[in-house]
């Protein structure tokens, strides 16, 4: 099984940038579809972006501002976030699943991103 550890969160002003990292250990990294999801206080967890066998996909709210990438050699998933908005404030989770399965099975503990106005 894969274990996931996120890092890179923090406090940033609106318009700023951050890069989140998700380091994976165990499992066969190249075998997994991987994604970033986020949860703001009092709200349900929502999809942000994913790297699938078919390519990358993004939520409309982050398209053209966020870029997801997967470095198989480093066993790390990244999320480059730019033009951050207060609405991006949330706990960001890294998740992994097997291809052709709908549910993400493996989760990290999350890293907090706070965007001030």
Write the topology of this structure.
Blueprint: E1 3-7, E2 10-13, E3 18-25, E4 33-39, E5 46-52, E6 55-58, E7 66-71, E8 76-81, E9 90-97, E10 106-107, E11 111-116
Parallel strand pairs: 2-11
Antiparallel strand pairs: 1-3, 3-8, 4-5, 4-9, 5-6, 7-8, 9-10, 9-11
Account of the protein in words:
The protein is an all-beta fold and 117 residues long. It contains no helices and eleven strands. It has strands spanning 3-7, 10-13, 18-25, 33-39, 46-52, 55-58, 66-71, 76-81, 90-97, 106-107, 111-116. Strands 2, 4, 5, 6, 9, 10 and 11 form a seven-stranded mixed β-sheet that branches. The chain has a four-stranded antiparallel β-sheet with strand order 1-3-8-7, with no helix packed on it. Strand 5 (46-52) and strand 6 (55-58) form a beta hairpin. The radius of gyration is 13 Å and the shape is globular. The protein starts with a strand and ends with a strand.
Average pLDDT, all residues: 96
Low-confidence stretches: none
Number of helices: 0
* Fraction of residues in H or I helices: under 10%
